[in-house]
Description:
Layout (H helix, E strand, L loop, with lengths): L12 H6 L1 H5 L8 H7 L3 H16 L3 E4 L12 E5 L6 E7 L6 E2 L2 H22 L3 E8 L2 E2 L2 H9 L4 E6 H11 L4 H4 L4 H4 L3 E2 L2 H7 L8
Amino acid sequence: xxxxxxxxxxxxxxxxxxxxxxxxxxxxxxxxxxxxxxxxxxxxxxxxxxxxxxxxxxxxxxxxxxxxxxxxxxxxxxxxxxxxxxxxxxxxxxxxxxxxxxxxxxxxxxxxxxxxxxxxxxxxxxxxxxxxxxxxxxxxxxxxxxxxxxxxxxxxxxxxxxxxxxxxxxxxxxxxxxxxxxxxxxxxxxxxxxxxxxxxxxxxxxxxxxxx
Length: 212
């Protein structure tokens, strides 16, 4: 999505992040309906915007949009660069807005392999960084997740599956932190392999774990 698609004098990007759980289910939250009626924005566009601003404004990481505002072009949503950490690394992310849990198909895996190989080359040549993580944001995940993960891990990358509700939880953990404390977060540990759990995200961000 183009950064000019949304007029942020009218609406806060943090509102979109807070509502990401509903948005990821391919639904427009009540508080955003009038805005979306006016602008013509769909839920999938809001999801991309929420992810972009989470990486750029919440985690304070350089973020580059890809596949801007194109629904049917096969390209990931963006690249994220962690240049202040040791080691430095790049991360690629993809967003999936849908009413049902996201099931990664064989075709998806083939397409993601192409994403990863192309991004590996781009980040090494253009940014002098290794692409180490691929993050997929979706409402929930289902299907043969382990098999799909193994297929993608052959590309030498950590695949992190992020339920959208946890992105909003992460925002709640980080929003009152000082900039210096945000810079100390171990981003590579936050985006661990597989489907992320609430306690893992809270632990990485220094929040109290979710009661069992």
